[in-house]
Specification:
The protein is α+β, with helices and mostly antiparallel strands. 30% of the residues lie in helices and 54% in strands. The protein has a single domain, classed as Nuclear Transport Factor 2, Chain: A (Roll), CATH 3.10.450. Strands 2-1-6-5-4-3 form a six-stranded mixed sheet. This is Nuclear transport factor 2 family protein.
């Protein structure tokens, strides 16, 4: 699982890079059409995620992943779970928060696509 693990962690870090940079097109390419994200803000579809990331209204300035684990999920699936520490620009202020996150990937052809992303905020 070593090469797969490295590939999935790299994809997860690229998703956070795209989030920081407002790169909705990367999300368009990286999520299955039926993908969903679940967070304290509710359930978001792929279309919602692409639009939200592209708008980049409260840009993430820094994202740091730690305690990363990859778990195989049947044939052609895997989950990446970790802690993420974020600094976002809200108005003129930098605001920090932390969450536990899991992304479930499905093997599609010779690549991986996000099927589900879930975040649970940690108490401040």
């Amino acid at each position: 699982m070593g090469a797969v693990m490295d590939e999935l962690i790299g994809l997860e870090e690229e998703l956070w890079r795209a989030n920081r940079e407002g790169d909705g097109a990367f999300y368009e390419r990286s999520l299955r059409d039926d993908a969903v994200a679940v967070s304290q803000y509710g359930v978001m579809t792929k279309a919602d995620a692409v639009a939200t990331i592209g708008a980049n209204r409260n840009p993430y300035l820094k994202t740091a992943l730690s305690d990363v684990r990859v778990v195989g999920v049947g044939d052609g699936g895997a989950a990446v779970t970790y802690r993420v520490d974020v600094v976002a620009l809200v108005g003129e202020r930098e605001v920090g928060f932390s969450a536990l996150a899991t992304t479930v990937y499905a093997r599609e052809g010779d690549g991986w696509l996000v099927a589900l992303h879930q975040q649970s905020p940690l108490a401040a």
